Amino acid sequence: MFEEKIEVIAYSGYRGEEIPRAIIIRDKKIEVRDILKMWVEEGVGDRERKRFFRVKGKDGFEHKIYYREGSMEWFYVYKD
After folding, report:
1. pTM
2. d(Cα 75, Cα 13) in Å, to the nearest integer?
3. Domain extent at residue 22
4. For 44-67, what is the mean pLDDT?
5. Residue 29: predicted pLDDT
6. How many folded domains does the chain comprise?
7. Between residues 8 and 47, which one has the greater pLDDT?
8. How far apart are CA 53 and CA 46, in angstroms?
9. CA distance 75 to 47
10. Has residue 15 got a pLDDT over 70?
């Protein structure tokens, strides 16, 4: 698995959770059409929480991204 730090335009709901609306990868903006799946993973050793999203972009492709809660950063996941 290879990952890259990205920018995400997100909506923060009433509970403060970030929901991606668009992802920006290498200066290319891809608007999110649908959220296909969401899940949370927590590291065993470091207990770091990551909130994963599999989204369908308006570009017609599926994209896997995650939000690292501790550092408040977004990452794009290539091949899993």
Report:
1. 0.87
2. 20
3. 2-78
4. 94
5. 97
6. 1
7. 8
8. 21
9. 18
10. no
Report the C-alpha gap between 31 and 80 in whole angstroms. 22
DSSP β-bridge partners for residue 52: 39, 66
Q: What would the mean pLDDT of 48-70 be, rounded to a whole number?
A: 95
Token couple for 28: 């290319």
| DSSP annotation string for 4-27 | EEEEEEEEE-TT--EEEEEEEETT
Average pLDDT value over all residues in the chain: 91
- Distance (Å, whole) CA 80 – CA 70: 22
- Length of the chain counted residue by residue: 80
> 3-class DSSP state for residue 61?
coil
Cβ atoms 57, 67 nearer than 8 A: no
- For residue 29, CA distances in Å to 21, 33, 37, 50 come to 10, 13, 21, 22
Q: Are 48 and 71 in contact (CB under 8 A)?
A: no
Tokens 């799946």 correspond to 37
- pLDDT: is 43 or 51 the higher one? 51
